[in-house]
């Protein structure tokens, strides 16, 4: 209760991976007050502009309130039977790999678990992938290569204790604002130094001691130079290195790389390397500028190599920290909601792991090879290999690279189901069947944030119309496809207990992800669950990993991964001379299906734009506020010019939020090439090539 006497409910913000706790007080008329939860370890009462405006985004405008088949409202029974029949028929005629699920980091962990179980254990395909593939798949791949599992070593508390925080490809001030507030508070208290490594001068640079505006995609060369500096400067931790393998090859490869490709002066590079080397308590935060790259996994490992070489990992104030874009990107990783993973950090390609999960689920089948990752999945939709597709809480017709081709692929798919809170997305308009799902403030379940903290989301508003929770929709489909017993769930608490029990089996295989300590929670305990960082076992709750080694490769040692600079996959040239960087704005979220409902948020940046350097604007005859035609090999957009030296000559930046619904000529991901990292499958969203010209209306 707060001072007004009305009950408040603890929940979690549904936007970014910081995972802030919120206190919600409904007004009984469909609205509510929102404030930051002072007891949540991620935010200690802080909220950013998006979190503060949550109450403005819960209205029923554009809500999907009833199932729709072929454009007509119908009841759940008819809609779900139709979906079950079409999926079953497609599988019977073309095999399990002829269907796919494309899901989202917006799903709660319990929803994600059921979707993954249905596809991998019962349909018998690994064709389930997620929009988190666009967000942090390279970090997952980098962690697995170095540590043996997808383990985040550090915690947010490390930011409070660090003396140097290096932000690589991360506009923390806008994309993870509460973490940024936390960093600024630490800086005030202890003088934390901040270095930003980013081709663009972002809002985060305003408080940086150093900004290294390196050439796009050259992070590996910079961190290789750091590794050689640490070696030559005698800064290696010989004791810690004994808990690792592969240093000799990694350092040899690092010496063969050439830091001049960064475009940074030798003095700047040396100043950065010296500062890193001479500061013991260093945290390296990285985000989409690292992950969204055709060399994203190598960038991650170049960073991890430096922390492993110095033993600066898993100790207070030290370590690498990947920050995720979505509220439950981490939960999706934990339940194996990616095409190449099994639940609870078990490996799809490991026969013992497969057998254990199959036995636990009593599943009729289990694929033994990875399914199609996001980009390949939509290619398979386009060429007819996937004939039935279910898209959940995401808008790939706008947000996938080469979005025009993805939109055409979905339009041409034999059978497409979309479950979402709204029918007003570019993707929902293409669906044969629309299923109304409950929204953030109407759902019960859990999410995991970027520092492994599991928090509850709780419902404070009734489900509108016929909307249902995602876990219930998925479980009902499973039952209607003939898997009654496996999907006979009564509540998210029941799903969570099953998942926590399975994690104990993963623990027996020596995996990191183990929450078996929560497997016997009663419904009441689940209802009252307070934020808790995994692992949670009988022996341990939370903390950091790897301070004393103890990695998850078979020999218990970490791996150095030798990595060399690779240029972005798309090459500039006379036809497409500019490199396009895409990103997020402070006050918008994904394709704006929620944040656009808040006038306050929309006022921050009311229209789509492109940032270009004054020299380039002059050369192209473009004046401030002119409309600019942006042409890539894959699409075209018309955007307002913002002329600024925050981007370097030859580079342009455009935000990715606007859609065919909000600004038909500004679908940025229509311009982006579907080039992917060979290890992670993550698309390179920040280094496509484009041509610019002043737009003249016909
Ligand atoms: Fe929500 Fe992220 Fe803002 Fe926290 S920082 S309030 S999780 S959007």
TrEMBL record:
Metal-binding keyword on record: yes
Keywords in alphabetical order: 4Fe-4S, Iron, Iron-sulfur, Metal-binding, Molybdenum, Nitrate assimilation, Oxidoreductase
Entry keyword annotation includes Oxidoreductase: yes
Domain spans labelled 4Fe-4S Mo/W bis-MGD-type: 6-62
A molecular-function term among this protein's GO annotations: molybdopterin cofactor binding
Coiled-coil region(s): none
Cofactor(s), by name: [4Fe-4S] cluster; Mo-bis(molybdopterin guanine dinucleotide)
One of the GO BP terms on file: nitrate assimilation
Gene Ontology CC: membrane; oxidoreductase complex
Domain of life: Bacteria
Family that this chain belongs to: Belongs to the prokaryotic molybdopterin-containing oxidoreductase family. NasA/NapA/NarB subfamily.
Listed name of the protein: Nitrate reductase
Organism in which the protein naturally occurs: Roseovarius bejariae
Full protein: residues contained: 1 to 698 of 876
